[in-house]
Amino acid sequence: MGRYDNLNKIQAMDPIKDHAEIVKIMVSYEFPWDFQRSQIEMAFARFFAGPRIAGLVAKRGYAKTHPQKRYDDTSILLYEMIKHGYDSEQGRACIERMNYIHSHFPIHNDDFLYVTTVLIVEPVEWNARFGWRLMCGNEIQAWVQFWWEISQRMHMKNLPNTLEGIKAFKTDYENKYVYNSPWTKDLVQVFVDLISSWFPLVPKSLINVAFRCLLDDKSLQAFEMQAPPIPVKKLVEFSLRSRGILLSFLPPRTTSGLFVDHPSRSYPNKDYNIAKLGPSDENLKQKIGL
Ligand code: HEM
Fold first, then answer.
1. Ligand 1: residues whose CB is within 6 Å?
2. Nearest residue CA, atom 29 of ligand 1?
């Protein structure tokens, strides 16, 4: 199999009709590492820049007390849908579970749309900076279509159906709502601590600086973080770009790199039940005085 065989296959597919299959190939085989970093890790932190979102999540406290489980459960719920399709038995179970969890809280449609636009845009922007090749037009269109379908099943209204429209919504939301809030800073710290816990031999300050190198000025401001020294930022970006260039010369992946195709920290035996992922019923029903 050649390095560009998947790309050729994707380019011969229909980005609307075949969107779920294109997304599966793209995330599982073409860019699994990049999607995990950008769609789960960087995007996770970015949601918390929205004060309403951060306020609810912080008041609940669950993200702080169960950071690893929240990370794993979120990755599983999103990537089971990519592996099996959102209308498969597993995909429907994921959507039902997410809808059930969210039904306990008053969540504004715009906040749902914002989280969705971050989930869509973050991997595309990461790919433009660090990918071993650029995502092609069919991949981007399929990716947008995939999330548009999920937005319908999560009862969101008015998600734009083009990348330009999605970016415009995201920018507008950020201009209106993103500002410093005490919750944002706290939640992002919980998240950086989680990443640090995966690398016990690496000093926390180093993880913190690497994380800051990947953020734009606006996010740094929202997270009340200092800009990293420019030479360090350039070094981190150079390393990630070099990784991409190196990958382009290596043989293609023949096994899936999708999160759900590997054991995770919370489920080393992959023995999870989709209907039970996320907070327990008891936890969801706790009053938090919103
Ligand atoms: C496309 C949009 C969204 C997706 C795909 C999504 C996905 C998820 C997933 C997979 C979980 C379960 C993870 C876990 O708790 O272990 C979860 C939980 C949760 N989500 Fe969302 N979510 C979205 C938007 C939002 C928004 C906009 C808010 C709030 C304003 C929100 C608030 C929550 C809360 C409060 C929980 C329970 C866990 C906690 O308290 O931290 N979600 N969501």
1. 52-53, 56-57, 60, 62-63, 69-70, 73-74, 77, 98, 101-102, 105, 107, 111-112, 115-116, 278-279
2. 53
